[in-house]
Amino acid sequence: xxxxxxxxxxxxxxxxxxxxxxxxxxxxxxxxxxxxxxxxxxxxxxxxxxxxxxxxxxxxxxxxxxxxxxxxxxxxxxxxxxxxxxxxxxxxxxxxxxxxxxxxxxxxxxxxxxxxxxxxxxxxxxxxxxxxxxxxxxxxxxxxxxxxxxxxxxxxxxxxxx
Length: 162
Description:
Layout (H helix, E strand, L loop, with lengths): L1 E4 L5 H15 L6 H10 L2 H9 L3 E7 L2 E9 L3 E7 L8 H9 L7 E6 L4 H6 L3 E2 L4 E3 L2 E9 L16
Parallel strand pairs: 4-5
Antiparallel strand pairs: 1-2, 2-3, 3-4, 5-8, 6-8, 7-8
């Protein structure tokens, strides 16, 4: 698997990957408003706008193509991290985060985790900073962690290393 900065022309496919992953795992927990809000946020146009404003996007690629994506904005906030359903629990998210952290300039990195992703973020070293909130239908748990590197070993259940 290769994890690298995404090219501008790859953003439409990564947008679709994020939307597909969201619809499979997160959308069932959200209201109709929340689903609409997220799909607008994850659109190619919105991703391109964030990149133009300085956000950095990474993609994870294997023989199947794109299997994960992550985006950080403001040098401190992970605003998107999605892994294709068929590639979950294989270390893709961990590798994306490890690649993304050097792009961060702040000492503390934040994320608004969906309720079903809290466990993954806890494994990545994030901790809750507040209770679950809902804004524009988006349910999230504010979390933060120090910028220190993500430890890639040992692999967790189902993860393979290349």
